Amino acid sequence: MFLHPPEPRLNLVLVRPQIPPNTGNVARLCAVTGTPLHLVAPLGFALTEKKLRRAGLDYWNKVHAATHASFEELVREGGLTSDNVHLFTSRATRGLWETRFRPGDWLILGEEQEGLPAEALERFPERWDCLSTKDLGTLRTLKSRNEVQAPRRAPSA
Fold first, then answer.
1. CA angle 85, 89, 91 (to 5 degrees)
2. Is there a domain that residue 157 lies in?
3. Secondary structure of 8-69 in HEC code, one letter for each residue
4. How many structural domains does the chain have?
5. What's the Cα-to-Cα distance from 105 to each of 78, 83, 86, rounded to whole Å?
6. pLDDT, tens digit, for every residue of 53-100?
7. Residue/partner pairs of 93-99 with CB below 8 Å, 24 or more apart
8. SS3 content of the chain, % helix, strand, coil (to 5)
9. Could you give the CA distance from residue 141 to residue 151 in angstroms, rounded to a whole number?
């Protein structure tokens, strides 16, 4: 069973995720907010992996999730345009607080270690958005699945 919000406020995309618990945590967030989750292959794990299921707890049946064979397939099937895409990258040209989000926008995050692939960055060069240290002070720059959860740094001694 999947929940289908009438009009999603936002769409969340994980491009080539590699760490099952990160993806499971994001899936849980999507379930409780009614946000569709899109996973772009290749994935670094099987969707049946125990760590993925555990991190998503019992929310997986409430997640509206879709998988796409490639970024181009996502663009084609999802109707992504330079007007409705936000690429979260450390090479951002604007910060989060300068960005205007509208219902139906696509928030696109890259793989945990490498970030977004060149094909995504080159397709939408004017849509590089980021949560930077400048924006949030003590929170680190966000460039992985955990950016959705905004992890904190340990206080320095």
1. 115
2. no
3. CCEEEEEECCCCHHHHHHHHHHHHHHCCCEEEECCCCCCCCCHHHHHHCHHHHHHCCEEEEC
4. 1
5. 10, 8, 7
6. 777 777 888 888 899 999 999 999 999 999 999 998 887 877 778 888
7. 93/126, 93/128, 94/128, 94/129, 94/130, 95/129, 95/130, 95/131, 95/132, 95/134, 95/135, 96/129, 96/130, 96/131, 96/132, 96/135, 97/135, 99/129
8. 35, 20, 45
9. 10
On whether residue 2 sits in a domain, the answer given is no
Q: Name the residue range of residue 104's domain.
A: 10-148
The closest of 145, 110, 20, 69 to 78, measured between CA atoms, is 69
User: Mean pLDDT across the stretch 7-25?
Assistant: 90
| Segment 97-120 mean pLDDT | 90
Distance CA 132, CA 53 (A): 30
Block residue for tokens 């997986």: 60
Tokens representing 43?
Answer: 């994935």
Global pTM value: 0.78
C-alpha 49, offset from chain centre: 20
